[in-house]
Amino acid sequence: MGETSQKEVAIKLDGVSKTFKLPHEKVSSIKNIFAHAINYIRKRRSYEKQQALKDISFEVKKGEFFGIVGRNGSGKSTLLKLLAGIYKQDKGTIEVNGRLTPFIELGVGFNMELTGRENVFLNGALLGFSRKEMKAMYHSIVEFAELERFMDQKLKNYSSGMQVRLAFSIAIRAQSDILLIDEVLAVGDESFQDKCLKIFYKLKEEGRTIVFISHDMESIRKFCDRAVVIHNGELVYSGTPRQAAVEYVKLNYPETIVDEDEALVKRKVSVIVSKGGKKLSNNALVNYGDKLTLDISWEENSAIKNVGVALYTAGAQYIFGTNTILEKRTITSNKTSYEFNVNLGKGRYYAQVGLFGSSDSDKIYFLDRAFEFIVQEESNWQGLTHLEHTWST
Amino acid sequence: MKHVFSKKNRILLAELVRTDFKVRYQNSVLGYLWTLLRPLFLFAILYVVFVKILKTGGTVPHFGVYLLLGIVLWNYFVEVTTGSIGIIVAKGDILRKVNFPRYIIVLAGSFSALINLAFNAIVIGIFLILAKTQISPSVVFLPLLIIELFVFSLSLGFLLSALFVKFRDLGFIWEVGIQGAFFAIPIMYAFSFVTSKSLLLGKILISNPVAQIIQDARYMLISTKSETIISVFGSAWALLIPLTIVVVMGIISVLYFKRQSPYFAENI
Questions:
Q1: Which of A39, A304, B16, B158 would you call most buried, defined as having the most Cβ atoms within 10 angstroms of its Cβ?
Q2: A121: closest CA among A131, A112, A110, A113?
Q3: What pairs with residue A285 in β-bridges?
Q4: What angle do CA A90, A94, A96 make, to 5 degrees?
């Protein structure tokens, strides 16, 4: 181990395995022990072994925004808890260089019977802050949480949103070098999520290491420098977030053809976008009110029964989506046309095109960013979309 | 071991003890005053029942204070041990989500009981002065006695809390055991009552650290006529019996707790 590798590596896992023993019937009382005593002596297998993680090795470098991807039950939460030191691995080593703070759930350790103010100090203590340090930060914590008026109320009278805000506001004070962020953080309203993400970006700029666990590919692609994919407790991919997302989709929909540069799909599916008969190139500039036409055609495939188009903001916020089955249209040939009104405010957007079998989960071809476009400045209104409205003055 | 009282752990410990106190006396009109009122009322009851009505004190001088001292020490022991049993399981939610040294939870419970004991001690002190008891010079060893009680209760607390994670019957077993021990230990009766019937039984009973501590405290603070482990065995070496129990118990408990604590989160 050289001095340099010590400096560069934030987290290093080497051959980490974790097995949970799941008793068939939980033997947690003496009576059960007697009942199971004979089985116990005969063969000590009154439990089932569940291997949550098998031989996981990877490194996270300092200052990296690192993604861990996996389906529910893949073992990613177990991995997070091992990194946080909440569970202990059976085999292998975990090396953590620097102070690590897990954000597994916000507001853990809050006491409902105490006031918001008292809870700030209690929660701060869990993060290692003394009363004096907390007093110095108190004002900015409360301000950030926007809870000035509520601090002398008992926590049980807070709404869950208020609790989360307070908890988050405290948690981001943690002076840690490494942050473990679970996807649970992604719950909460839109503006709160935005606030969270802004903070994480700021932390990243400050050179902190962030390990982000999610099954939301958009956020992984957006934020992470590198990512790994965990499937059934095994590390199946380690590399770029883009490719990790592809591997993940493959695991979920093995029949889908997804390719890194989408070249393969593009050879089989073509999406031509035009405005008033004039073909548009990718990242075209359009205006509010323009009519765009997506001409989608594909290599003859009788399995294709449904064509879907969805619009997203560049920040992966889902705006609108529909498909031919939902709108009771039948696919009769190997092409279809989708026309829509750009009823959108200033900003960047993209359209997603999917070709499906008879069910939604039966993805055949999928173009995540079939077409990207930019809406130029609108004149007398602001926001994402223009809504019908009337004034009476 | 040097991490045990690191700054971070001290902060957390203090905050947990503080929370414990705040929550305990919340919504009560008299609040913290109850820490003093409780032993006061307890003394009033003991005095009326055992000194005035039942007169079980016999020749024991200052029997009311004698009982109060015993019961306060005993209550400390009960508070720590029964309080510790379920505490790891009760805090399961936080253990599964935050990584901090698990022993701090047990330690915090033990410290808040100790603060309670200190308040009780104030009341006892007042009664000792009022009753003009015969305080022995050996009272200089009283802090050692309290340390012994603290260590013994705490180590049982560690052991019970860790065992309870796996064996939930322990809660009921301990409840029954504590009831039995209450009568096996000379709390509500004069110890001479036992030794006058069977010296062997007396020797066995006084070898229990809690019984030894209570009797020693009575000897130091109330009357040198109180029987102690030294007087029952007739040798100061006898003190080694309860001390050995305390040390062995302490080692077993700490080792067991240390071995089990990394798995609390998954076993709860």
A1: B158
A2: A131
A3: A374
A4: 150
Structurally, how many domains does chain A consist of?
1
The answer to the question of residue A145 being in a domain is no
What global pTM score does this model have? Answer: 0.74
The DSSP call for residue A208 is -
Q: What is the pLDDT of residue A27?
A: 54
B97 touches A: beta carbon within 8 Å: yes
Burial A280-294 (b: 16+ CB within 10 A, else e): beeebebebebebbb
Q: What is the dihedral of CA A87, A89, A93, A98, to 10 degrees?
A: 0
Check whether A4 has a pLDDT greater than 50. Answer: no
**Residue A340: which domain range?**
263-375
Comparing CB atoms, the residue among B22, B23, B96 nearest residue A86 is: B96
Q: Which residue of B has its CA nearest to A132?
A: B11
List CB contacts of A338: < 8 A, sequence separation 6 or more. A293, A294, A296, A307, A309
- Who's near A254: CB < 8 A, 6+ residues apart? none
What is the predicted ipTM? 0.80
Q: SS3 of B2, please?
A: coil
Instruction: Please give the interface size between A and B, counted as residue pairs whose CB atoms are below 8 Å apart.
Output: 69
| Residue A260 binned pLDDT confidence (cut-offs 50, 70, 90) | very low
> Which residues between 54 and 93 in chain B have a beta carbon less than 8 angstroms from any beta carbon of chain A?
93
Tokens linked to A368: 């995540």
Place of tokens 């240390």: B258
Residue A314 is part of a domain; what is its CATH number? 2.70.50.60
Between chains, do A128 and B168 touch, taking CB under 8 Å as contact?
Answer: no
- Distance CA(A59)–CA(B263), nearest Å, equals 25
